[in-house]
């Protein structure tokens, strides 16, 4: 993240810097409580995206979250596991890599990915989607955000020196907010 943000890295609060300050071979774990939601009529599309390795399938309040990150070279591997009040669990894995200054690529399964613009505004780390893609070998097919659930935005802001708030939402030009998850996180 330091490479992606360049000089803007220094504008982030320490708790958010800590979230991304891991080097090759290192791991970190966050725990939190999240709310996950989307309109019920979008369940078939959410289910399909989840089948390909993206997003969390189940909606819920106060889901217990564990987020494990591992740095492998310049890749950041994410493993997100939710445990719901009824004991059901769900997970979502992805890999992030540097693409250019202020640009990341997040990859899920089966060659699907997302271009993300990353910035810092008023001490918050902001990600904004800039199109999806599907890649098979050297063939890459770009997919506009509106063709799926819409444009994603993620913000991370400090709540205290040990805790931050994450707000991830996807907004479609026709449906409005089509998916979200949000909650507070702290380090283990």
Report on the architecture of this protein.
The protein has helices at 2-5, 14-20, 43-51; strands at 27-37, 60-72, 75-83, 89-100, 103-107, 112-121, 124-136, 139-143, 151-158, 163-172, 176-187. It has 188 residues and is mainly beta. The chain starts with a helix and ends with a strand. Residues 12-185 form the DUF4166 domain.
Radius of gyration: 16 Å
How far is the N terminus from the C terminus? 21 Å
Helix content: 10-25%
- Kindly state the mean pLDDT as a whole number? 93
What letter string, H or E per element, gives the SSE order? HHEHEEEEEEEEEE
**What sort of overall outline do the alpha carbons produce when their principal axes are compared?**
globular
Share of β-strand residues: over 45%
Strand arrangement, major sheet: 1-2-3-4-5-6-7-9-10-11
Major sheet attributes: 10 strands, antiparallel, barrel
Helical stretch tally: 3
Class from helix and strand fractions: mainly beta
- Spans of at least 5 consecutive residues whose pLDDT stays below 50 are none
Please tally the β strands and state the result. 11
Secondary structure: elements and pairs:
Blueprint: H1 2-5, H2 14-20, E1 27-37, H3 43-51, E2 60-72, E3 75-83, E4 89-100, E5 103-107, E6 112-121, E7 124-136, E8 139-143, E9 151-158, E10 163-172, E11 176-187
Antiparallel strand pairs: 1-2, 1-11, 2-3, 3-4, 4-5, 5-6, 6-7, 7-8, 7-9, 9-10, 10-11
């Amino acid at each position: 993240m330091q490479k992606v943000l360049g000089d803007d890295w220094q504008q982030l609060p320490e708790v958010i810097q800590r979230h991304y300050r891991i080097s090759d071979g290192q791991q970190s774990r966050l725990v939190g409580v999240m709310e996950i939601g989307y309109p019920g009529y979008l369940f078939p599309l959410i289910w399909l995206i989840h089948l390909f390795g993206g997003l969390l399938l189940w909606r819920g309040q106060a889901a217990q979250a564990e987020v494990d990150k591992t740095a492998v070279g310049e890749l950041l591997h994410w493993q997100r596991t939710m445990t719901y009040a009824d004991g059901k669990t769900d997970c979502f894995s992805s890999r992030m890599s540097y693409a250019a200054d202020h640009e990341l690529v997040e990859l899920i399964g089966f060659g699907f990915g997302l271009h993300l613009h990353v910035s810092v505004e008023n001490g918050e780390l902001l990600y904004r989607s800039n199109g999806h893609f599907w890649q098979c070998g050297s063939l890459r097919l770009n997919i506009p955000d509106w063709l799926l659930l819409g444009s994603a935005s993620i913000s991370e802001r400090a709540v205290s020196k040990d805790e931050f708030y994450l707000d991830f939402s996807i907004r479609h030009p026709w449906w409005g907010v089509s998916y979200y998850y949000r909650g507070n996180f702290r380090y283990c």
